[in-house]
Amino acid sequence: MRRVAALLLLVAASLWARGADELPPCPPPDDTKQQDFGWSGRTWHWNACRGEYVILRNKELRGTVVKGEWRAGQPDGQGSYLKPDGEQYAGGLRSTQKHGYGELIFPHGDRYVGEFKADQYHGEGIYLYANGDVHVGSYQNGWRHGRGSYTFANGASYIGEFSEDRFHGQGAYVFADGDKYAGEFRDGKRDGVGSYVTAEGDKYIGEFKDDLMDGYGSYQFASGAKYVGGFRHGQFHGEGVFITADGRRTEALWEDNQLVREIDSSEANALSQQELEEERRQLADERRQLEEARRDFEATRDRDKPPARASDDDEPRTVAGSGFIITTDGYIVTNYHVVEGRTEVTVRTIDGKTYDASIVRLDDQHDLALLKIRANGLASVPIGESANIKRGTAVLVGGFPQVMVQGMEPKITDGIISSLTGIMDDATVFQMSNPIQPGNSGGPLFTLDGNVIGIVSAKLSDKVMLREFDSIPQNVNFAVKSSYLLELLKEIRSVRLPPPNPKRKYRATEDVVGAVEPALVLIIAR
Asked: Is 2-129 assigned to CATH 2.20.110?
């Protein structure tokens, strides 16, 4: 996990370069001003320029070197700073605060890469601790909050929900010694219904409190023996039945794992066989519900399209998708669902530069979106006519799947056109065999001639197919046909497309990939 996470740290060096070629250098500081408190004074006249400034008079920030974009006398946009104590930052700045996507490196060795808001971790991010621990997931107001994973340097790991830095909600924990727990957490402890399996093979299903078995549960020993009944502070307590491996049963009252007395079958509180079976069924139902909750969590945590927010006060979510440049002056294509409902869209090219993007046109019916960035001389990819494609045509997919895990380098997968139609013979899409993952949405589907013939849009849901048909689909993926994109582009006169490549332009697959890759972009929508 740490090696994978470290891939993201390569982004920092280029984060402040966004739009740098478009802004002129700032003029010299105004030496007639005698203060620079709050980014005012000597830089009051810096606006829409890029500059470097050393803070001298602000006691808290004295000696800090600030580089990047300035507006209205303050850092505003992509930039970086270096403090005298060694703290470094590269990314979005808004006055004195970190805001947007960036990387923060602390003098003691901790590193954070992800989203900031008002100087705090806020959104999706990854934190690498100097001691070797790694957290990947959501943050809110500086806390680990929402879904995420935490890997400890000693080998233990947690995946699930967080609240204010603590495990809280549904989750799964694997201990360094091999023990495993799946179930409910509260304030960092196992609390609620869950299952616990030891490395030796013992298995408990039931209630927990304050990290211990507490309440009603069933404990199955690896030896074959079993106890069903009450627990307190991790030990047998109350009424319970102990069944040996050879089937002998003891119904008794227990206290701190010790048998107090056996219960006579005539006593009113005796546990009947029928009651035991009912308890077992209830435990089985609880276990099934727990497994369903775990599967639901794992199925939703990697979706590249989070649920819509009810209000601006809800936890912010970021969509990461793919796209591709179609003109040298900055027109870009992606999916409608990647930018749907988002107010800020950032585009990152493979050379590390990032740009603010405006939404030019949306086509929700065909899941298409056209974006525009302010740039010139960009690499672009030609669009071919999808009507000429046949089943069995070899195709490639390019994009940025799961960047928080797989890193920022573009990924290429190969396959063929499996069908000229999609689900229920939907003629607007191709079905292809290329493997895709969350984050591939909006990327190009292109031929070995280097022509885009589709826009990656969806895959057949493993979860739905498993639930409804008891089977998992293998590489059943879909792309919107390029003919619908060409129809959309006809409506926009300013889009001047390059002509499609001729057949057999490239001799080898690596040649076509090398031609298309420079036009691939990562889309970050907030």
From this structure: yes
Query: Of the candidates 32, 50, 51, 56, which has an alpha carbon nearest to the alpha carbon of residue 42?
Result: 32
pTM over 0.85: no
pLDDT digits (tens, 9 = 90+) for 287-339: 555 555 445 444 443 443 333 332 333 334 577 899 999 999 999 999 999 99
| 410 in Cβ contact with 350 (< 8 Å) | yes
* pLDDT recorded at residue 12: 39
Answer yes or no: are the C-beta atoms of 316 and 505 closer than 8 Å: no
- Distance in angstroms (rounded) separating the CA atoms of residues 488 and 320: 23
> Closest by alpha carbon to 123, among 271, 261, 320?
320
- Residue-wise pLDDT tens digits, 498-507: 999 998 888 8
Tokens representing residue 206 in the block: 């039931």
Q: What is the Cα–Cα distance from 329 to 271, expressed in whole angstroms?
A: 78
pLDDT at 292: 56
State both tokens at 38: 């709050």
- According to DSSP, the residues that pair with 523 across neighbouring strands are 321, 347
- Taking Cα atoms as reference points, which of 449, 442, 481 lies closest to residue 382? 449
List beta partners, residue 437: none
CATH number belonging to domain 317-526:
2.40.10.120
Q: Specify whether the CB–CB gap between 68 and 16 falls below 8 A.
A: yes
pLDDT tens digits, 374-403: 999 999 999 999 998 999 999 999 999 988
User: Domain 171-301 falls in which CATH fold?
Assistant: 2.20.110
Where, residue-wise, is CATH 2.20.110.10 in the chain?
171-301
pLDDT band of 275, cuts 50, 70, 90: low
Asked if 368 and 336 touch (Cβ cutoff 8 Å), the reply is yes
Structure token digits, residue 508: 């080898």
